[in-house]
Structure formats: C-alpha cells, structure tokens
Specification:
By secondary structure, the protein is an alpha/beta fold. Helix content is 41%, strand content 22%.
C-alpha cells in the first residue's frame, strides 16, 4: 500500500468519478484505475462498487476513507516538518483570526515573529470564529485566534486560553467626558455606531442592551472595525469595542470603561487535535504565549481612559462574554 495509491483512492471517493479523479491528481485515467485495482488486491477487498457506471464506496471503502485521509495528512505534516527543520529558514504558517484581533493583537505579535524568522511566510485569514473553526477542521488553517467559548462544540480541536479582555465604550475626543464608568443602561437613547451583521460584537452589544430593557438606536451601521472607529471619531455616535482595539485608536477617541461587571471576552488559540501543527506554527504559538499577558486587559491602562472607581462599582452593569 503506497501513499500515491491512497491519494488516488481519496480522489475517486470524493469525486465518485474515475476520470475527474485522474484530472485532480494529474495522471491518466488508465493509470489511476490500475493503481486502484492494485490497492484492492493488496487489501484483499473491493473499495468501490461500479454498477452501471455509478461509483460508490463499499463497506471496505467506507472504512478506509477516514484512515487514508489521516495517513495522507500525517505524511504531509512530516514532509513539511522536514522541509522546515533547517533553522526555520523557510516554511509557512496559515493563521486565522477574528477582525478585531487582526486589528489589535496581531500586528505586534507578527512583527516579533517576523523579526525572529523572516523566511517564514505568514498567510492570514480574517473571519468570524464560526468560519475559522470550520477552516481548521478542513485543514486549510494551522492555527486560529478565536473568542472562547467556541460558537459550537468542536471536539476535534484543541484550544488554549491566552487572555481575557474587557470591552469599552469609545466616543469622539471632543464629546463631553462622562465622568464615571458607563452602565449599559446609560446607552439608552444614545446614538450607536454599529458593526455589520456577522460581527459578534454587534450581537453582543444588542443582546446587552436588550438585557438592560431597551432597544439600541443606530446612527450608522454596517461598518468594519476601522470604519466604525472613524465614524465614532467624527462624532456620529459611540461604539462598544475591545480594549486592545481602543488602545491603538489614537487621540481622536475617548475611552470609557463599562461599570462592573461589564462585558468581556476570552481570547484563545485553537488548532486541530489529530494533526500536529507544523514546526513554524508551533514557533508562532510560542511567540504568542510569551508575548501576551496572562491577565485581563483593563481600561485603566488605556490612553484617555476612564477607569473603574467607586462610582463604577456602585453603578452596576450587564456582564457577559463576547463570542467573536
């Protein structure tokens, strides 16, 4: 049994067509059919039912398919490991992250990683946690920075908590200072700049407002992170954003904490459990865990921030965790 034969078998199993499978693996159809027959002889069982031109997996084929995929994935990992062993001078890391983490967390981490390993190619996929989990399961990503807990159970993934981060309210620097941390209830009647549908921060903010007994009022909605911050700095309204994003926003914004218990999210690193991340990805994991604090990111440390004092503790608020 050869890896090439397993690759041909998986191609036929996925396309259910010998000619299309041969095109996928770049061999002639007779050669592919010959190798499939040789594999069947070696295993002592037919893998495909070929009745009337319809290709279907036999029971033996169904049993072999997940094993073949795992063997091929392990072989690909081994190949990349050997290629990248030379002092991490070459290789590739495919990293996924949510939009806010791409904006706030990744620039400094990737700068450190690139300075240590300039030969490693970094491929970044920006998407929501749900999509990133799916891409990890498909094997198109090595690692993903997601917000925990995951949107759905994913037993095939391993997750490691990196840090917790508070969410804060940002407003234009020219707006009157609130003088104290804000409660979610304080946002009633205030114009909000809101993210597009699909942003987990949108769902979190709306849910927190409804839990406080009111429907939020939007002046602008539908933007990505940079657009939302720009609209806020222009005085169009306020927005609820992660602390790390607010810390990089500059002097055009005023940052105000949410009164206890506030809103916060847990940031984690995820990878597949059944396939070891390649060497370069493991090195990026090390850089991430060593360069990030292990404690919550608090608004008190942000430029222009309004910290939590006795007034904030007494004001109360809506607690929860962001999902993205």
């Amino acid at each position: 049994m050869q890896l090439q034969q397993l690759s041909y078998f998986v191609a036929v199993a996925e396309t259910r067509h010998f000619t299309r499978a041969a095109e996928r693996v770049h061999v002639s159809q007779p050669s592919l059919s010959q190798q499939i027959r040789a594999l069947e002889r070696d295993l002592g069982a037919e893998l495909f039912s070929r009745a009337r031109g319809n290709i279907a997996l036999t029971d033996a084929g169904e049993a072999l398919l997940p094993l073949a995929r795992r063997i091929l994935a392990d072989a690909d990992t081994a190949r990349r490991e050997v290629q990248e062993l030379a002092q991490l001078r070459s290789g590739r890391v495919r990293l996924g992250a949510t939009p806010s983490l791409c904006t706030a967390l990744l620039p400094d981490v990737l700068r450190i990683f690139h300075s240590l390993h300039p030969g490693i190619q970094l491929v970044i996929e920006e998407s929501g946690s749900h999509d990133l989990v799916r891409e990890l399961a498909r094997g198109t990503l090595d690692l993903a920075l997601v917000v925990l807990p995951l949107p759905a159970p994913a037993p095939a993934l391993t997750t490691v908590e990196l840090l917790q981060e508070d969410l804060v309210v940002v407003s234009a620097a020219t707006a009157p200072p609130p003088g104290r941390p804000l409660r979610i209830a304080d946002l009633e009647g205030r114009p909000l700049v809101m993210f597009r549908h699909g942003y987990d921060l949108r769902e979190l903010t709306v849910a927190a407002c409804r839990a406080a007994g009111f429907e939020p009022s939007f002046t602008v909605e539908g933007g990505e992170m940079d657009a939302v911050l720009g609209f806020v700095s222009a005085g169009l309204g306020v927005a609820v954003v992660p602390s790390m994003v607010a810390a990089r926003a500059g002097r055009d914004l005023r940052v105000t904490a949410l009164a206890d218990p506030g809103l916060r999210r847990t940031i984690g690193l995820a990878h597949r459990s059944d396939v070891a991340p390649p060497r370069a990805a493991r090195e990026l994991m090390r850089v991430l865990t060593e360069s990030l604090p292990g404690t919550r990111v608090l608004p008190e440390s942000l430029p222009g921030g309004t910290g939590r004092g006795e007034a904030g503790a007494a004001a109360g608020g809506v607690g929860g965790q962001a999902a993205g």
